[in-house]
Amino acid sequence: MSLSRTSDVLVIGGGVIGLVTAWRAAQRGLRTAVVDPEPGGGAARVAAGMLAAVTELHHGEQTLLGLNLASARRYPDFAAELSELTGHDLGYRRCGTLAVALDADDRAHLRELHALQRASGLESEWLSGRECRRLEPMLAPGVRGGLRVDGDHQIDPRRLAAALVAACERAGVVFHRAWAERLVVQQDRAAGCELRDGTRLGAEQVVLAAGSRSGQLAGVPDDVLPPVRPVKGQVVRLTVPKRYAPFLNRTVRAVVRGSQVYLVPRLSGELVIGATTEELGWDTTVTAGGVYELLRDAHELVPGITELPLTETRAGLRPGSPDNAPLLGPTELPGLLLATGHYRNGVLLTPVTGDALAHALTTGELPDV
Length: 369
Ligand code: GLY
Hints:
The chain is α/β, with parallel strands linked by helices. It has helices at about 15-25, 60-85, 105-120, 130-135, 155-170, 290-300, 350-365, and strands at about 5-10, 30-35, 50, 95-100, 125-130, 145-150, 155, 175, 180-185, 190-195, 200-210, 230-240, 250-255, 260-265, 270-275, 310-320, 325-330, 335-340. Strands 1, 2, 8, 9, 10, 11, 17 and 18 form an 8-stranded mixed β-sheet that branches. Strands 5-6-4-13-14-15-12-16 form an 8-stranded mixed β-sheet, sandwiched between helices. A two-stranded antiparallel ribbon has the order 3-7. The chain is elongated and about 70 Å long. The two termini are about 40 Å apart. The site of glycine has 6 residues, from loops. Glycine binds next to loops.
């Protein structure tokens, strides 16, 4: 079947990463198309939207930290530009984060995190349990201490995705609402993709931004296929009735018995509680056990949640990479670029990914960030 070049850039995957790549590419004058059966879907439908470069710092992730911080710095301008352009409210909230400890083990863990943050030149403040409860009166009386991080904010990922779809449409991005079945390679370069119905779309450059599915696309040579795997996360959503507002003023999180739990309060009244981390392949079942653990741990932190209506339970698949850092930029196959493997940081890394990929698509190289 013939392959005519219909665009300069073809982005496979219409989650927030694919969309921001397409938007930024189109802004630079590249004729851009996105292939996805449901643009604006993907892991961002489930994500809580924490912009947590500082509170999600882990040992051994210093390179990722630099990228996370670069993206966090871009967020205010990025959100303002996107919101102004589309008229969408993104739910961007510069509310800060409080990470708390409930017992001696959690406290030791948090002290360790504080030391790592300070060694990395990051701003965070150690608070006593009483100081934590003064900031967040709904916290359990047993809270032993906490870290106040005013620089870790939040955005509503569903609103972000919807705004990016609108921005792409305004910039002239063409949407093909279908599954990409196979990468088309011609004369040793990526030349487009084949859809499930056999249609072939040609492009000068192809960006593989298919989230956890990025390692599955047929036709990608083995040595180029990104080592991305699905990592399941279950999330529950509660609603804070107006009479209880403000229930929480900022994101509250903790490690409870070794598991991360976070509560992200939106101005809309939504309270997102997440998330499990499960290596179960492609399974997206919401389980009684997953929901039970989230609610149990969140209840230990904020007992009052049991009064709130439970409005949604959902599971999504994070695109995990070997070192938890994303795979970005040109590959060994000419014409094929990657924007995938963002694991826990897809929403946070959206601005920097869009800028980096647009640079790579126009110059052939990734920029220094
Ligand atoms: N960044 C939060 C999560 O992946 O659960």
